[in-house]
Amino acid sequence: MSDLGGDDERDDILALLVELSVMIPEKLARYSQNYYATLGALTARPQSKHSRSRYDQNLLESAVLGLLRSRTSATVSAYAGFASEYLTVPDLPSHLGNLDPIAEGVDYKILANALASITSSSTEDDITRYKSHEQLLWLLAYFIFFRGRQHGPTDTVVDAPDAEYVSVISRLLSYLADEIGARIDLPGNSQGSLNGISSPAQHMDLQLPDFVRSELLSLVNQQNISSLITHSELISPSKGRESQGPDEASAVASYALMLLAVFPRRRDDIRMWLLLGSSSSRKISDGSLENSVPAIKYFWRSASSSRVYELIRQEPGAALSLLRTDTVDAGSRRTPSRLEHGSKDREWRIVLLFLELYTLALRLMDDEEFFAGGTSASAEKPSWTRASALTLGQVKDLTVFLKNLAFTMYWNAAELSGPGNLETKPGIANYFSPSSDLLLGSQANEPSSDADMVSIAGVSGMTVNYIKGMVTGLLRMIYERDSRRNFLPKGHWLMTGRFEMEGFIPAVVAEEESRHQVQEADEEDVNDVEVGAGDSGGDASALIGTHRTQQLRYLERLRLQQRKASRRKYLEALTPRLEILQNMPFFIPFATRVQIFREFVTLDQTRRRNGHVDADQWRFSVIHNAPRMIPDMRRSGEDIIRAHHARVRREHVFEDAFEHYYKLGDGLKEPIQITFVDKFDTVEAGIDGGGVTKEFLTSVTSEAFSPMAGLNLFAENDQHLLYPNPAAVEERKDLLRQAGLKEGSSEWNEPIRDLLQRYEFLGRVVGKCLYEGILVDIHFAGFFLLKWALTGGSGAAPKESGYRANLNDLRDLDEGLYQGLLQLKNHPGNVEDFSLNFTVTDTVSSSAYDSQPGHQPNQRTVTRELCPNGSNVAVTNQNRLSYISYIAIHRLQNQPRLQTSAFLRGLGQIIQPSWLSMFNQSELQTLLGGDSSEIDVDDLRANTLYGGVYVIGDDGLEHSSVQLFWQVMRSLSDADRRKVLKFVTSTPRAPLLGFAQLNPRFSIRDAGDDQTRLPSTSTCVNLLKLPRYSEAETLREKLLYAVNSGAGFDLS
Hints:
Pathway: Protein modification; protein ubiquitination
Mean pLDDT: 79
EC number: 2.3.2.26
Number of strands: 12
GO molecular function, one term: ubiquitin protein ligase activity
Number of helices: 49
Strand content: 5-15%
Shape: elongated
Radius of gyration: 35 Å
Helix content: 40-55%
Protein name: HECT-type E3 ubiquitin transferase
Largest sheet: 4 strands, mixed
Keywords: Transferase, Ubl conjugation pathway
């Protein structure tokens, strides 16, 4: 600044300021803002290369600290000026050379009090009006630095965050959360444009300065975060232990939530440290040690006693007003809540942090601990997770709160994302947002997804959509526990009272049609972008250096994201029933959801087949109306029909099916025709009920999923439940290495691609069974089915509402591993004695057999690190829960990721993922394989068709042999009835909605009057060919012999 003169004049000014700070400190402190503004200008002023000697440095430090060292009635004012004017000067460490002398001379307590006073008495608008975000970033960093220099790193109690520190950091982070979140993980020095796109951000140094970044990252520290609750009496030092309540919990919650918002990649670490910190001991009033309340119960106590929690739990409609951030309900012109805005925000923060922590705790808690409800049957000290478990009564109350909250967030999505509910702040994150007008130059009338911007309780990052996803995920987790072992009363999960159920199914079907129209618009956008990308010939390398082309393509992708976000918001308002069904299906009875699923399939068939749902009518229409029926004008109707017909060898059903039908893609939804041939290429005899689709699909699944078939695509657990073979890809790679193929070459990639295509095809086949309503006798592991159920839910907070691996799911994969990890988790001693580290060993079996007796496959082990440098990270009592979590994620998600993704991709091509999300894992198994309840003979009899001489005549009486058959069926045990049902239909279970839904219908026709002949079947059409037996005993004997001996298709 030229008005401060040259170096000599600057030194004179510094000397004068030092002298004045000694002579009249109290009077000068009243002008501390001017004083430190001048010092700031002097410090930041460019110096000549010979200036800033050690003498100059001492003089400057004396001037900075002089006013702070005097203890007068105006000392706090001096510190306020120092904080607001000097600590907002960027890059002081560079200007001063070393910030330590200043830090050592500052009284941290007074500085903290001054800053707490400034931030608590000023609004964000007040502060940001006078200080830029960049200045506030430096202030935050300096404050963290000064506190670190005041407290030693080893004394946990002393180093526990104090009330002022928590208050100041929380407030400053709330101003800067978007900015920090967008900049802290940027690699390199991001000068200039982002991804080659010009924007206002182009001229900013987007990467945080090293000093600022380092100090911010120091906040994510296990010792400090754990001590938040362990020594929480230090947060409110004026309160005794007994009086600690909502204010203390709210202070901790505000600070913790801001850390979660600013450091989303460290979210699980932060939550884990909060939980673990509470398990230490602390001193109470008489000086003795008492075990602290676990974090879950600490926040549960405050959350469950809050008015926010009570109002939502008791009054289903109260959630809307409590979630809205505006102050008056425009419709009713009344105050929307019985809580003051500030009190409501404080209580929301406690509730939100409790939900964050309980979500993580449930992932780590095994069923035994959960159902123990925080009690221990033994005299030993309970494990941390067992001690953290809520009582089952508390969980029941919590689910009522969550149900009411979740229902409101989906049913009233349009109101919650309306303009009156926005509490947003401009920040650098806008430059990274697909909906940013600054970046895209979009018009004001192009809406964005407001629910992604609305923040609850003034906490950045706690948006409506994020909370919706978190609540959905938590509800599903508790529902899964109740599904495995019922502890809630029958009907507890239903919310049918909130709907008009009489017209519910037609309303949902109409919403699905609306969703499909929006989805088609999204697909058209994607196709347009892909066509644009195709202009370069699909060669990404051709675009290197074509700056303008990259700009346009990137802008187009962002505009596409914006349009999709706008449509998603539109859908939330247009399809509330569908949103609830897909995210919280347990609100609606299972039978209703099954009916809706079948309606969705019929709607899709009608749409795809131009109204011709019947297979023969569709084929006729394709042949005679091909140009209207088929978008691809290059293919004739005959070509389409030919593509849907296959000649399949009985000995190679899966291979022939894959070879012929893989290329159909989602065209497998259309009717297919199969001709079975034997090993002599002779066409099999049999009834072709419009194609032996059912026989074909059951044969494909039987071969593909059978461990004896040698395909090795799926593995079995101890209960013979199936899941994708997690080592399949590695085993294929081993074979390629043995063949000498170069990794990454086309010869290497093609066999791996072929393997994954087989998984994809299997997914389509299973989807085809669901689509056609054909029951198949295959049983999948619960954790695998759970991935089906969690693929089509809300796009909000997918990491919270999507599938997350947990300890309980490991039980379905490997009982031995589950028990071992359970022992590790609950081990009372030092787990370092086990000499474990953060690595995992995978076993890979090669299908190439060695020459030793028994022909056992070659096996090798592969050790993988679970985290960076994991081989050097020992498993300790403090980090064992993280280790267990990493193991679960590796075994259940990472190791089988490619196989599972391929299968689900194929499944999703036939069945919309959003349809699957209407069911939990056990319901999906029932949908696929039928009802496991006792066979209802009366229902089966009422829905049976008869042929030949068994056709019922005008008298309405059944043939005598038919009457004997039903007499025998009644006399059989349920196990034998199931055998008969499987003998005829290929599956031992009834359809979910009764035998009226069996496709094709159960049928009986006569097979002659030879009393020695066995009954036989045509399973492709669910037909029992029953000889005209005259005695019940003979019929029973022959029927059971045929059933148990495997006599079946076309047996004479």
